[in-house]
Amino acid sequence: MKSLGKKNQTITPPEGMEPEDVAKRLDISIPAFSKIETGITDINLSRLEQISNLFEMSVVQLLTFNDMEQEQKFVNELDLVNKKLTDREVEIIELQKKVIELFEELRHNKATA
């Protein structure tokens, strides 16, 4: 569960809620909450449910928060690469057409000479 703490670092508390507020609402000390955030302290299922309720997300969402964020980043990058690839394919097709046209022109000029 230590990786959960690392994931919690990126979870934004509800608007206007500071880490001190989060600790208070979880009924733990600020240092204890900090240790959860940094992954120093393992947390049990009960604490995990408290945190997920506080942040208004399911336990699964809490556990996969960074995974979903990373997946979306990967999808965005993949879309960008696919677009670049499609653009290059269009350029290649246009260049192939020009090569064919030049070849036909050369062949025509050779036939008439």
UniProtKB/TrEMBL annotation:
Residue spans of biased composition, Polar residues class: 1-12
Region (Disordered), start-end ranges: 1-20
CDD domains per the UniProt record, alphabetical: HTH_XRE
Protein name as it appears in the record: Helix-turn-helix transcriptional regulator
InterPro entries: Cro/C1-type_HTH, Lambda_DNA-bd_dom_sf
Matches recorded under Pfam families: HTH_3
Source organism, top-level taxon: Bacteria
SMART domains referenced in this protein's UniProt entry, alphabetically: HTH_XRE
HTH cro/C1-type domain span: 20-62
PROSITE patterns reported for this sequence: HTH_CROC1
Protein source organism: Mucilaginibacter humi
